[in-house]
Amino acid sequence: MTVLAFLSLFIGVIEVDLSSLASGDAEQWGIFLISRLPRLLAILCTGVGMSVAGLIMQQLCMNKFVSPTTGATISSAQFGILLALVFMPNSTLWGRALFAFAAAILGTWVFVWFIQKIQFKDVVMVPLVGIMFGNVIGGITNYLAYKYEMTQALSSWLVGHFSLVLRGRYEIVYLVVPLVALAFVFANHFNIVGMGKDFSKNLGVPYNLVLFMGLTIAAMITASVVVVVGAISYIGLIVPNIVAIFKGDKIRGTLMDTALFGAIFVLVCDMIGRVVIQPYELPIELIIGILGSLLFVGLLLYRLKNGRKAVVIRGMAGVAGGAASSGCAGSIPRMDEGDGK
User: Fold this and answer.
1) 81-106 mean pLDDT
2) pTM for this entry
3) CA-CA-CA-CA torsion for 315, 303, 215, 125, nearest 10 degrees?
């Protein structure tokens, strides 16, 4: 990842080279500090944050197809930004972020409350409910945008891209760092809550408190990314599933790998978007959408062919075998029936 991050700093329409930076060229250093470095930091925070948010939601909802996209979190954050634009048109980026945080948290909570009321849960039904709920929120957002002539103003948050990331308007994404650190601290609690309500009570873990705390962390991570970068799908869905195939489903054991792979995935997609049609740039949402669709199809085919079997890599056979024997690695989502556990 270090090599990719270094190469990313020198890819762009305006050429930046090491010799000019070493000689103290003021213009080159300005581009580097104002645009290239902030963009790299935003990319890394986005990849880490969205991947971890997806992992938390999948663990707490006990479904491998739940993510900020299929859990209506991204749609809710966009709705919050629109409310800020309508009622506080002169608000700063932080003001819009507060609206996005509140809407994303509320939307995620409503989604989880709703699926807990479903008596007969299915692996596919839960994300479909989230997609439909997200579309309802998206429809309301578009209606209000047309009514108040905010469509053009809202367009920046509808498609994810890093082209507008500059020093002074991206720092909100730094909130991802403490939120991810908090997720590491409570990883074991999330893992226990993912086992069900009764299991959590037997171990003395406050189920509702941990559930809502985890959902709040995931929602705030997603909202902070949406406010700066825009909507980016698939990261929170694809990355945790790929890591789970190799490392198992325990959140404590996969959190670091999920964060690292998420950062690499977003970094590679951004570099592809910058070089494929130079000097123009493709939105990161387009590149991730294409690659994410292909990876998602591959994951489905793998599940159909191998079921719960883990991928065994030389040197990791013991780890993968142990995870597979415990019923974790690459497992099909667990959805209990009845009381929503």
Assistant:
1) 89
2) 0.83
3) -170
